[in-house]
Amino acid sequence: MSYFFQQLVNGLSDGMIYAGMALALVVVFHGSGVLNIAQGEMATFSAFLAWAASSAHLPWPVVIIGVVVLSFVLGVGVERVFIRPVERASELNSLIVTLAVLLLTEAIIGSIWGFLPRSVPSPFGDGATHVGGVTITYQQIGAAATLAALLVLLYGFFQRTPVGIRMRAATDNAESARLLGVRVGWMLALGWGLAAAMGGVVGILAAPQFGLDDSIFLNVMLYAFAAATLGGLTSMPGAVIGGLLIGVTQTMSSAYVSFIGSDLNVVVPFALILAVLLIRPAGLLGRETAGRV
Amino acid sequence: MRVAASNLLSASKTKVLGRISATGASSVVLLLVAVGFPFVYSDFFVFQANQVLVYGIAILGLVLLTGLTGTISIGHGAIFGIGAYATALGMHDLHLPYPIALLFALGVGAIAGVLIGIPALRLRGAYLALVTLALTLVFPPLVLRFESLTGGAAGYSVPAIDAPQWSDLTLSQWLYFVTLVIGIVAIVVMQNIKRSARGRALRAIERSEPLAVAVGINVSRERITVFVISSAYAGLAGGLYALVSGAVAPDAFTFVLSSSLLVGAVVGGITSPIGALIGGVLVAVVPTVTATLPHGLPEYIYAIAVLLAVYLRPEGLASVPAGLIEFGRSLRARQTASATVARRQNHPESVPVKEGQQ
Prior knowledge:
The complex is a heterodimer.
Chain A: H1 2-32, H2 39-55, H3 60-83, H4 91-113, E1 128-131, E2 134-137, H5 138-160, H6 162-172, H7 174-179, H8 184-210, H9 216-231, H10 236-256, H11 267-279
Antiparallel strand pairs in A: 1-2
Chain B: H1 2-40, H2 43-69, H3 76-92, H4 98-120, H5 125-145, H6 147-150, E1 156-157, H7 171-195, H8 197-207, H9 209-214, H10 219-245, E2 247-248, H11 255-268, H12 273-290, H13 297-312, H14 320-346, H15 352-357
Antiparallel strand pairs in B: 1-2
């Protein structure tokens, strides 16, 4: 039984990471209708920044705050410079632009820090606690607590603050929002910044768990895509539920189904999203959009 | 008055005729260049050209699917891989002659299209793109897992084939002509689909699905048909890839292939066969050329080139000639306008109004 709970804990802790990244994807997609394939690579960049700062022996709070602010600025910058020219272009063209941003970010990371994988210390130390035969590392507890706090903050931001409400207005009905004096373009850029900051935090938290090299977050991000799709690309709670579900199913299936093992566990989340989408084409909590004639 | 009208008529007629013969002439020239190419250049370049044509055919599948219906597929790399494995296995295990193995690849690609197309019917836009992305991610690990069938990570070498004796060609030259003929047939088929009732139905669906339903188009049937045809193109292209490269291995059919096919299609031009050819060049030749550059530089160049192409020519590079003609026309119009002004300034006496005044 403790084996089961151990798998559950591991699954949930991976799932939290996917959930955080999925949330970043949803903030961007819901805001500007762009699937940001580069989100994971941007998070990798943030994680590298954090790694570089922490190897310079800066205290962790400074590192985290600095990286989050910098990621936010970079996110806004990416939207203004790269995405804005294709704001009105087709879905496909903006997808290709984010793909190019991914390649560009990867090249930048490669030329600054090289292509060797690195091991990253955890901000929460290396210890672990044992609860009835289940080992939970401080890293897992810390990451989960931070992400949970972040979710609450984000929720509060979108529900309660004037800026958050303006951002929601800009995504729900850009035209009306514009008439009411909301600067829709900047709200979208803000969304990108927020997503990049989220991604930065997730990157810092995930690096000790997954390791760090120039493309490590490609996989994390693909699971995050699966999570966001599962929950519905327009729903934030959906992204969180999707992330946790995928983390848990993935660990459980490779722990209990010997055929799947560790090499085929990439198949599991996608079988899951296919099954869910066949029943609910807009994901678990997503909104179906009506066709316009 | 009547004379003027008939003059106008004949003028427009010669213009139309001229335009038709211009397209005709340029196709003939293009064809002559294509046929002459393998005799002028060495086998190395012919091999490269084969790859361009192979990826071009795969991108034609995307041109059909995405160009006509707006459906985004990030899964064509996997279907390409399925076609390649079908050909390799068909020739190696079933001892099929290669033309039959190519048909086998076409069929397997089409079947893959049905299997993905049916669930895809329920999905739209980003959701569908992500499901096809999933296909791309799942394919290589599955190939690795079923090692006894697929040869695992090392892959398979395709049994050697020879050019027929009567042709007196090298293998590369022979494969070039095989691929060229298949490519031309693929283009003709695609253009016919575009101009048929089905093509118009598909464009109607892209415009507005509820409207298409309202005018009596069977949306599900049309969408799945185009998915199957497009997948068959990808499968066939994969089969040709196996023949041309002589081997198949799982790391050739990853996310990188799917995404570069898509990038090739968009940068080349998602609505035209010329765009597919340009896309093929991008996928096949650019990595070979940039491999000689220092590490890191190719990625920068590639990413920036893609960005510039999408920003400056959102319709793809295939729209450059049309854009140039348009530009030339506006330039000429401006020149005539300024020439008229200049004439008036230089020879004021020739302007009728002045004559009248004198």
